[in-house]
Amino acid sequence: QVQLVESGGGLVQPGGSLRLSCAASGTIRSINAMGWYRQAPGKQRELVARIFSNGNTNYADSVKGRATISRDNAKRTVYLQMNSLKPDDTAVYYCNIKELGPRGSDYWGQGTQVTVSS
Questions:
Q1: DSSP state of 43
Q2: Cα–Cα distance for residue pair 73/66, rounded to 1 Å
């Protein structure tokens, strides 16, 4: 059984930084991408950032220049460093892993709350 365990969320002041981590356990076939999504109250879940197996990354326009996604393949862990946080970044952040191929599975973490407020 695959489990994704997120950590690093919490209350941060505007302009502050945080680093989210997501560690995967269990049997995962070839990974296509590891990423972070977020969902604010009353809004749809949206992509924040993801990193592909070839190292390519993409980011939501709203976080470009403020977020950096990275991964440690040996630890099967993906990180999200976010700087210059804004109240609009407040959301539950979810880790995601997508396996390769049309039958590849999609795994999600339980989510970690990030609140940006003074």
A1: S
A2: 23
In the chain, % helix, strand, coil (3-state, to 5) comes to: 5, 55, 45
Residue 115 has pLDDT above 90, yes or no: yes
* Proportion of the chain above pLDDT 70, given as a percent: 100
How many Å from the N-terminal Cα to the C-terminal Cα in the chain?
Answer: 40
> Whole-angstrom Cα distance, residue 5 to residue 57?
21
At residue 56, the pLDDT reads 96
Q: What per-residue string of b and e applies to 57-93 under the rule 16 or more CB within 10 Å gives b?
A: eebeeebeeebbbebeeeebbbbbebeebeeebbbbb
| CA 31/CA 4 separation, integer angstroms | 14
Contacts (Cβ under 8 Å, ≥6 apart) of 54: none
Radius of gyration of the chain (CA): 14
pLDDT, average across residues 35-58: 96
pLDDT at 102 exceeding the cut of 90: no
